[in-house]
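Hi support team,

I've been running sequence recovery on a batch of backbones for a student project. Most finish fine, but this one hangs at about 90% for roughly twenty minutes before it completes. I'm not sure whether the input is malformed or the queue is just slow. I've pasted the structure tokens below so you can try to reproduce it. Let me know if you need the job ID as well.

Thanks,
M.K.
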């Protein structure tokens, strides 16, 4: 991740101010004051002027409220803040100091648009005329023209980002898989996601029961002493009526998917996993002919939400994790009984900060899932859980599973499946490298998180998947996308 501390600080301060005012019931009344409180002036902190800085804060407030930035009906949870994106260089081709100001002027001769002119010491490219064809760079004998790809565009695994005539980044909804990589790659903080902070706070203030559901990737994010028990206690202090770790949903998903895989294996049919919404979005948007290969089993998030709502139909369920694409799962996929809202770690921590609640060290006595369910957030974790579940149900098969780790591998193996060249029986697809623990809104770096998680899981109860589900009456709700 490349987002710098200043970008993160501004983002967190906006989220906190919105959360604080929402709890006080004064958001509509005082939200216009937020830009002036965070950017008091008279001198700018990061940009050309305080007016641009305040406009960026205003747009971030809109995202924090869950609103579209420019009053349209755009469904994408990821949006570009135009006033912040304006600071990014328009031209992606730049003449470097390697330029010898040679007589041949191969770069000028190669340009068909008159975008390059000779200077006193080196050639210059006019960004207003440049069409980014790259001919100048190819023609230069000194390799003096560099191709500078914007971080957002460079990070997008599905080429969903282009630029408009003003050089503002544009996200193509038809291509975007909502993985969120662009958000944290932009050093200007020009891309953000809509949040459900206000909706969740209003639910907490209502008479309805609100349940928190923490992703398996949560363990280890905040150090070796912050356990699921730590989260349960903290979120109860915030006002949540109940808490369930989504590793339990991993166990449920593994049991259901094991049955589905076993049936498909016997029929010679290949399948791909359905738990990662970024991967599912990739299949549906970029490999639509493979959509029928997606497992019909719901995600662990949806499984836990359905479990809660089977007992309390009016309950509000809130998923907490490192994933941006989970927001799109509830918006785009609209699966019955799914979570009502999704919060990233920065968003739930803004809510906790507004209520003066902190995470405190806890033991591992609270265990809602098996170790296999807890490892669902790792690349390969879904495969391990499903294969283990097959063993426990005596399926009598040993499937070959391709573990696609990250969006690039997902594209590679989906392409093989599309052309009938995939040697494996199934694909486990994780859009983020390392799995959910490497998600775009992770709190800690992946290696530290994995080390802390392993320490915590060594203390966890290593129970079987199916045995762990005996008390949950899964027959009360469907595990399939209906």
């Amino acid at each position: 991740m490349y987002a710098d501390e200043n970008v993160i600080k501004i983002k967190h301060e906006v989220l906190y101010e919105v959360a604080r005012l929402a709890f006080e019931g004064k958001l509509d009344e005082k939200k216009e004051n937020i830009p002036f409180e965070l950017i008091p002036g008279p001198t700018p902190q990061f940009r050309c002027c305080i007016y641009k800085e305040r406009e960026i804060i205003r747009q971030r407030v809109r995202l924090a409220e869950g609103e579209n930035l420019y009053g349209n009906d755009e469904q994408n949870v990821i949006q570009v803040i135009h006033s912040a994106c304006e600071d990014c260089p328009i031209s992606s081709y730049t003449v470097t100091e390697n330029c010898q100001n040679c007589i041949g002027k191969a770069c000028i001769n190669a340009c068909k648009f008159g975008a390059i002119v000779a200077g006193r010491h080196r050639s210059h490219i006019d960004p207003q005329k440049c069409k980014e064809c790259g001919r100048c760079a190819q023609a230069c004998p000194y390799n003096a023209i560099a191709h500078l790809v914007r971080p957002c565009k460079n990070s997008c695994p599905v080429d969903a980002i282009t630029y408009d005539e003003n050089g503002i980044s544009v996200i193509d909804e038809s291509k975007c898989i909502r993985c969120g990589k662009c958000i944290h790659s932009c050093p200007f903080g020009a891309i953000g996601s809509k949040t459900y902070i206000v909706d969740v706070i209003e639910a907490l203030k209502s008479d309805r029961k609100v349940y928190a559901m923490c992703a398996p990737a949560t363990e280890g994010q905040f150090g070796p002493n912050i356990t699921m028990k730590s989260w349960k206690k903290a979120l109860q202090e915030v006002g949540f009526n109940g808490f369930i770790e989504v590793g339990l949903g991993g166990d449920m998903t593994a049991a259901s998917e094991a049955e589905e895989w076993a049936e498909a294996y016997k029929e010679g049919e290949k399948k791909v996993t359905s738990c990662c919404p970024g991967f599912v979005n990739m299949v549906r948007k970029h490999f639509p002919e493979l959509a029928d290969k997606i497992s019909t089993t719901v995600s662990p998030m949806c499984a836990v939400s359905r479990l809660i709502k089977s007992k309390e139909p009016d309950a509000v369920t809130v998923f907490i994790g490192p994933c941006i694409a989970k927001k799109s799962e509830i918006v785009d996929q609209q699966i019955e009984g799914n979570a009502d809202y999704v919060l990233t770690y920065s968003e739930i921590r803004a809510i906790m900060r507004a209520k003066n609640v902190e995470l405190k060290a806890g033991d591992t006595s609270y265990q809602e899932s098996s170790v296999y369910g807890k490892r669902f957030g790792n690349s390969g974790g879904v495969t391990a859980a499903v294969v283990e579940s097959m063993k426990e149900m005596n399926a009598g098969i040993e499937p070959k599973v391709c573990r696609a780790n990250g969006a690039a591998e997902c594209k590679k193996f989906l392409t093989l499946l599309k052309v009938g060249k995939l040697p494996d029986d199934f694909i486990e697809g994780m859009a983020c490298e390392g799995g959910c623990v490497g998600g775009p809104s992770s709190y800690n770096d992946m290696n530290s998180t994995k080390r802390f998680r392993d320490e915590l899981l060594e203390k966890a109860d290593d129970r079987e998947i199916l045995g762990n589900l005996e008390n949950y009456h899964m027959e009360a709700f469907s595990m399939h996308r209906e």
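--
Follow-up from support: It reproduced on our side and the slowdown came from queue contention, not your input. Residues 5-24 form the longest helix (20 residues). No action needed from you.
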